[in-house]
Design goal:
The protein is built from 18 helices and no strands. The chain has 397 residues and is an all-alpha fold. It has one domain.
Amino acid sequence: MNHFEGPRPLLDRIQQSALVVGGLGACALVVGAIFSAQQFFQSYLFAYMFVLSFAVGSLGILVLHHMVSGRWGFAIQRLIEAAARTIPLMALLFIPILAGLSDVYPWMNQNGMPQGPLMGFKQTYLSVPFFVSRAVLYFVIWTVMAFTLSRWSHMQDQNAGAALTRKMRLLSAPGIIVYVLTMTFAGFDWVMSLEPQWYSSIFGALIIVSQVLSTLALCIIALRLLAAYKPFSGFLKETHFHHLGNLLLTFVVLWAYMQVSQLIIIWSGNLPEENLWYLHRTGTWDYLVVPLVIGHFFIPFFLLLSRRTKRAMARLALVAVFILAMRLADMFWLITPAFHPGEFHIHWLDVAVPISLGGLWLAAFVRNLKGYSLVPLHDPRFEPALERVENAVGAEG
């Protein structure tokens, strides 16, 4: 039986539309790069970090899934595997950032680096060869982990047994640690170093939580689109969406907790090198802060408290779409004030680049998704997980 027959026309249309949008957007970006190179690179970094969330965040959820074997994980396993296999594409799309280092990162001009007790170490750490070497290392590690776990999972489709399950779990145990460490330092390198005098030990964890939140929202939207087609129509229950909604709520709260914790610590310390980051995000940037606080936390928080919202896939998908919009705004707020401190600034490239990169990434994601069965066929944990869902549904009935 072909488990993929049902949704193929839908996924073909999505892939073709994404390619058209990505291609047309790329043409616009060439024009923008010619006439405003510095703005292009700044907008590109913001859009790149947003799109990267789906690829690397999927890897984080994948290793977590293999460790805990939650029933929610089998519904999205092939989605996050397909997303994680786009990491080589993200490595390729990282090249423009390397080409525009001098237009984005102030530490490229060592004479213009601010002075301070830690700046000596930072000048060594933020050198171009070391920066590029670390980036290559991150992408190599992520790619190896993503493709190894995906290959073992797809091998299991042909060969039933628990041996491959054990191998995936054994790799995922250290894989969680590796993912957290590499993404933490990538967050330091690619975002925090935009303001090299500033530092926050929680910033890397905030990037990781944001990535997982974005990926969960994307998976919920994808499941909503695929729920009417086989094989999902045969096993997806309200309980699956309930669990995913609970996870979404958890990471919405965790995001808010980390944001408030960072603010309180820096505010109470009142150190100039720490306060500066928030000062850059005052002035007319305040007009974005209030919508972010309300839209990124309060609205989804109260919506996701409702059991009815979490168990209705259409409602939950709408909440997920709203969260993704807030995630885009939050990434804009994290990055753009570094280039325009105290003064809200938006350029047409800030709209065009996310659309273009998002289209190219979505096309690659759908292409990966079409290559294999949409569910793990012979994973020994899959059937028991379905039975637990059935029992839970029966008990609730």
